[in-house]
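All the exercises in this workshop are built on plain-text protein records. There is nothing in a record beyond a sequence line and a structure line. A learned vocabulary of local backbone shapes supplies the integers on the structure line. The question running through the whole workshop is how a given chain folds. Here is such a record, shown just as it appears in the course material:

***
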Amino acid sequence: MINGERVKLVRELLGLTQIEFAQRVGLSQAMVAQVERGGRQPSQDVVAAISLKTGFPVSFFRQGEPPTFPAENLLFRASARMSARQRAQARSYGVLTFEVITRLARRLELGPVRLRRLSRDPITGARATRERLGLEASGPVQRLVRSIERSGVFVVILPVELAGRDAFSAWVGDEHLMPTIMLSGGRPGDRFRWSVAHELGHLVMHRGAIGRDAELEAEADLFASEFLLPEASLREEITPPVTLSSVAALKPRWGVSIQALIRRAVSLKLITDRQYRFLFEQLAARGWRLSEPENLAIPVESPRALTRMSELLYVTPIDVPSMASDLSLPARALHELLVAQGGKVPEHTTDETVGRQTNNLRSITDTPARRMFADR
């Protein structure tokens, strides 16, 4: 027997409608719908075709229910630009990645989750979270991802670019006790750090919260501002005369974009609205609105939790074929997930299911992104 939820998971992961999926595996749309609902079991030949055309082993579909990763936990974090299909695809990546995490975690002894829901007020929440993570009340957060992972949060970079969204997060698992942040690949380091802090704000403030998307996003941004750029510190460092050069010089120290520093300065009334507009005019004139200077680039921090678990269980460099076999996953998909975390995996392998290592991250909505799982 196969699990219909897992068939649906793979279909959504590939970004396919039921009709498109049916055409790929040689079934009718009605048959696909029945299989996904659990109302009908396909023949062994059909199961083999599904495995062949998706790249997922038959053993993947014969497992029990996938882990709990409810879409409703993600909806208020989803950009209005994301379609229902894109949201489903992002959720499917979350489910698959979270299943990898939980299955590895069962074989290891992990520390307790220290992150807690705190005040809904962004400023109070940010300051309390700094204290809870053992960070100084002021000054830059030097190792943001590591500090968050030590609190029990799983941070994972997806091996694709999410269309219209930098990241999403949720308290997941059977009892919603595991905080997880999933991030789009292909983002610069300053934007990456802001996304991590923004999603941390959601985890701290919005567990079960009710509110409008715009309101919740604004609160998460204010949390990120105070968490990464504490008011007391910025008041000491942004002093007259405020110029584009003086603000840009702060970027390497604080690990955020020049634009974020300018927005924080105006929100704290360290500069006037007129100065704010002038600074952004200068940014635009230099072409820095879209791409800030390369010499000021912030490195992307590599999450360690998933990679470390994999190394403990499957040596270093990670034995991807063995790990994929144990997890009933396509070796190529697992390979790319580990590469995205900065994991030490062999660059070449004789396992044909891994194939070539993909270095160019692709849009989650592009047809080539589907080839991560099957070039068939």
Summary: Residues 349-376 have pLDDT under 50 and may be disordered. The chain is about 50% helix and 5% strand.
